[in-house]
């Protein structure tokens, strides 16, 4: 009998899914606790990351790479 091995496509989608879950959770925590975003922007980012669970958090992380306190010169 032949051993059953998963297809390469299945392995790829499992990697995307399992990497997407932590990205999704971390992005939601960062969106909810930040004070740099107002209520409307938070809602937009939450909905965007909900409907694009892998690409949405990546876009969020590239747009807001760090959440340092804004100084007076940045306001």
TrEMBL record:
One Pfam family in the UniProt entry: PLDc_N
Keyword Oxidoreductase attributed: no
Q: According to the entry, what is the taxonomic lineage of the organism?
A: Bacteria, Pseudomonadati, Bacteroidota, Cytophagia, Cytophagales
- Domain (Cardiolipin synthase N-terminal): give its ranges: 25-62
Per the record, the domain of life is: Bacteria
Q: Please give the start and end residues of each transmembrane region.
A: 12-31, 43-62
Q: Which UniProt keywords apply?
A: Cell membrane, Membrane, Transmembrane, Transmembrane helix
- Compartments where located: Cell membrane
Q: Which organism is it from?
A: Pontibacter populi
Provide the membrane topology annotation.
Multi-pass membrane protein
Q: What is this protein called?
A: PLDc N-terminal domain-containing protein
| Major site of localization recorded for this protein | membrane
């Amino acid at each position: 009998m032949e051993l059953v091995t998963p297809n390469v496509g299945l392995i790829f989608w499992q990697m995307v899914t399992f990497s997407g879950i932590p990205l999704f959770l971390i992005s939601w925590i960062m969106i909810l606790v930040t004070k740099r975003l107002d209520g409307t922007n938070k809602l937009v980012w939450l909905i965007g990351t909900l409907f694009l669970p892998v690409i949405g958090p990546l876009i969020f992380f590239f747009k807001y790479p760090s959440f340092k306190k804004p100084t007076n010169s940045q306001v």
